[in-house]
Amino acid sequence: MPLLDIADLNVSFTSRSGVFPAVEGFSLTVEAGEAVGIVGESGAGKSVAMLAAMGLIEPPGRVSARQMMFNGVDLARTEPATRRRVIGKDIAMVFQEPASNLDPCYSIGFHIMETLRVHNFGHRAARRERAIEVARQVGFPPARLDAFPHQLSGGMAQRAMIAMAIACRPKLLIADEPTTVLDVSVQAQIIALLLALRRTQGMALILITHDMGVVAEAVERVVVLYAGEVCEQADTDRLLRAPCHPYTHALLAALPERNFGTGPLPAIPGAVPGGGDRPEGCLFHPRCVYAVERCQREAPALRPLEGGLVRCHFPVKNG
Amino acid sequence: MSPVFEVRNLSRHYSIRRGFLGGRDVLKALDGVSFVLGKGQTLAVVGESGCGKTTLAKQVALVDPPTEGHLFLGGEDVALTSDPASPRRKIQIVFQNALEALSPRQTVGASIAEPLAINTTLSRPERRERAQAMMVRVGPQPEHYGRYPHMFSGGQRQRIAIARALMLRPLVVVADEPVSALDLSVQAQILNLLMDLRDEFALSYVFISHDLGVVRHIADDVMVMYAGRAVEQGTAYTVLSAPRHPYTRALLEATPRADRPRRRERPPLVGEVPSIPPPGCAFHTRCPYVDNVCRRQRPEPRVFEGREAAACHHLEKVG
Fold it and tell me: For residues B140-152, b (16+ Cβ closer than 10 Å) or e, as one string?
């Protein structure tokens, strides 16, 4: 049985101008100890899907799912009190901007100990000891546990966030763009830390990112989202080498590192559709070089191909 | 090629307080940086946050006066000029976040036309006509003249900022991380636009970026900065394909690559850029080649193997 099994997750937001489907028909399974990447541009629904899984979407957002099984508990059906016992303890999340997700009024040590207190981790002295232990583990100097968030650099603040997240030894860590605002040097340090934690703790990892390089370095399997739908899912190596969906294909082709010389980059025309302008048929067809009449009319289903899944009438043939 | 723009020995020092009653220290945010830029050429400035990239951008664009140094534009030293308005017309700047750089209460057309209102005696209809002509070339569509910045996507907003920067026909455009905040598919569009405009308007770019993939694609020359100083500079090809400074090498090594994943648990660079550089070589605290000479003596930049300058005691050893 997989650790996490999300089936048919839908998230929509209602505003004056109508209903905006942020995530549609999203399914994902993650095995214990596995590392999965969720990739997409802004507005693709990456973060929303994971926030919904953690029960963190508030009205006017609407969440529905066939099931969201985590470790034998269906998070979609459980009481909020039960869910709160799981969230933060067995599933933990690290956010993109550590500075804005830490409370400026409290020290880092307090943040870590608070997580432990909420999840009933021993008495005060034990919590303190555990806070020092996890700080060491993530490379956060224990002497600086008395520091407040504003006194830390971005990299250190992210280490503090990770220390909080792993304090209760979660089975699954969801990291939402954990390195996006950091320098490449510090980014490499944080990715290395996540990989080391995964190995030593046997922790599963869901990494949300828009950076194909980060995906390549950190995860074994990738789910590509476009405008709220999964458009492709495959093993990392296969996806990067031979992408089947025209969107994945175009995204990888546009990477400057894959274009030597100074000629123009093969850019994808247009932009990701927003709330009001979702096209009929395949969501990607207005920007797709392979689109034909059928793509404008008929939305493709997600189907198995080359060991992965792809949502396209005419997948790209590689090689 | 005759240089359009020459920067010689540019420094910016800030005076910082040492505690409440303490004296003052000098923070050398930029310390003796020099470069030459030919017509139609692009110099990329790379380095981690806090290395002085943005300070350099501000000095070069005359936003903030340098402490010392010279900026020669067409033979004239514009750093010393008493009337900054005149050279400022020929050096323009594009920022990372166009939404913050554009006035939310001004129509984008008015934003694009504003440089003409300030610097020329053109009538309102003439200004409008020129702004619309620029919009035809750079975007967004001239019909959107009366719209406001929030009504556009990130890529379109960056086009507006670029159009505004070009209204006075500058010789030099300083672009401070112009594509960092954009999605991958849009990033390629804007890079292509910048390269087309460079050829069309014979622009020279000072391109500030932390993304080495982007730099490799767009730049003729590269300057790698650390703690306010240039540690390695030369042609993009020389510096990026055969880096000889340990810092350049580590930065390249730290950059995640989609086509060359390593999945490592040991990052190539530990620690972060020090805000107050240590004595000796500023990089010695993080350098794998460090010895006693590095701790005592600051390496002076020297010409080395086809690059204009490299500042390291052990260039010969870093083979």
Answer: beeebbebbbeeb
